[in-house]
Amino acid sequence: MRTVKEISDLAGISVRTLHYYDEIGLLRPTEISEAGYRLYDDKALEILQQILFFREFDIPLKEIKAVIENPSLDRNQILRVQRKMLVAKKERMERLIASIDRILKGENAVDFEVFGKSELEDMYNSMEANMNEEQKAVFMEHYGSMEAWKKNFLENAGSKAAQKNFQKVVAWYGSKEKALEASKNPGRPEKFSELRKQLEAIIKKLAEMKGADVNSFEVRELVGEYDSVTKQLFQLPDATDMVLEMAAAYRTNAEIRAAQDRVYGEGTTAFIGRAIEAFYKK
Question: What is the pTM of this model?
Fold first, then answer.
């Protein structure tokens, strides 16, 4: 058994915090000594560790209490969710550090042309090589021929607006080389389709939770899955910036909201946007 002072020193939190956790029923002492001192065993220390993991993401105490007391959630399930959340935070920190390093090296100058003509042609050739005949037929019907679509693609991709978007893509992937590599190696079509279906399933589940607290454990868990699938789908080391940009569009773009709400119900798109922003704390 350990005293409240020993637990405080071991966990790096104040005695007052432990007293408060006891008062609200979040972490009860294992027993009270005859002298009135709170005593904690190893099981209580394990629960405290879970609480502190969740507090790293500013999850409200009432939500943590609901998760810990939920009989349908076992220890390993909670730990897997916590691990996923910590990995996402770690990758976000690594991305921020890398950005600072690039600025310190003087690599923060904005260059108008992100991808040159030869690189855009390579990008187009890779896309065409990974298309099936059905996909090619769609472009041929719209443009008249694949050559006409290639010309249209190169003209649009070379525009100032497109190059600005490419700057975002490069930022998402961490470097120009990684962005080009992802465009040239999109992966197997069946895997892409499978991941798209996973994303749609997550969106559907989020839609069913419309109106719930965006900081609830269930909502945050779904957004964490959304982040993980997005990284696989787009071969991104960190999907934070891409997903946050999508969340902003969900909240502010009336056309996107209307189109998606027609499928999942009015107010769903704005709710998902808020849930994503709450997950990343921006």
Answer: 0.47
